[in-house]
Amino acid sequence: MKHTLFYISILVITLFTACNNSRKSNVVEKSDYTKMGNNIVKKTFDTLRNSLQMAISQSGIEGAVPYCQSAAYALTNSYVSDSVTIRRTALKYRNPANKPDTSEERILTIFASLKEQGIINDSIKPITEEGKNGNIHFYKPIMLQQMCTSCHGSKSADIQPPVWKAITTLYPLDRAYDFKTGDLRGMWHIIFLKSIKN
Ligand code: HEC
After folding, report:
1. Residue with the nearest Cα to atom 22 of ligand 1?
2. Is 90 left (phi over 0), alpha (psi -120 to 50) or beta?
């Protein structure tokens, strides 16, 4: 009897450890995607911000508006491959092509409610989750910085009339204004397609 109990205990401990291990490896895998996501966002954002600053210094803010349209897409794609896609989306978007889908809207609402609860920007962590088809989705909030207000701030105080004209000419249905520094502007959404997971 004593022996049987002993063997059962060993079995239970072994099973428990095995379960724990498989859960652990899952967590490690997810954190790897989070790391990759953070890296891609950092590189893309740095490139985008530097090129934007250069375009502004060369052709002024209103001259940089059409540049944003043509360059944003190419730039946001410069760090991706066939198995990774990246895009920017927002509840209040400028380009209708950046309108959020249902999953993106769900995550944007989560980030917005964290902000409403008063959680400070640096403490809002990215979200990494697996979709139904096995793709991994990485979402990271984009907060508005001072330099962004000249095109996304208040129409009366921050955006100069020629800039506003350039924006509404290209985006007649624009909703991406009236933001203040530190506001949640939108988010990055990176998809790691299933094929690279194996
Ligand atoms: C020179 C004007 C200008 C400046 C400065 C600017 N943006 Fe934009 N932003 C635009 C335009 C134009 C678009 C639409 C681009 C497109 O067609 O995809 C845009 C689009 C976006 C989008 C994609 C969602 C949407 O609304 O379509 C995000 C997110 C965004 N900007 C964030 C920022 C942040 C953060 C900064 C500051 C670091 C910034 N922008 C600075 C003009 C600007």
Report:
1. 88
2. beta
Q: Which amino acid is at 118?
A: G
- Span from the CA of 70 to the centroid of ligand 1 (angstroms): 11
| CA dist list (Å): 82 to 6, 106, 166, 194, 198 | 53, 26, 34, 11, 15
| 135 backbone φψ class: left, alpha, beta (φ>0; ψ -120 to 50) | beta
Tokens of 158: 């921050």
pLDDT, tens digit, 9 for 90 and up, residues 98-115: 999 999 999 999 999 999
In order of 138, 144, 155, 184, the CA distances from 92 in angstroms are: 20, 13, 15, 10
Determine if ligand 1 sits within 6 Å of the CB of residue 169. Answer: no
What's the CA gap between 43 and 82, in Å, rounded? 18
Task: Give the whole-angstrom CA distance, residue 146 versus residue 77.
Answer: 25
Q: pLDDT digit string (tens) for 29-54? A: 888 999 999 999 998 888 888 888 99
Chain mean position to CA 180: 19
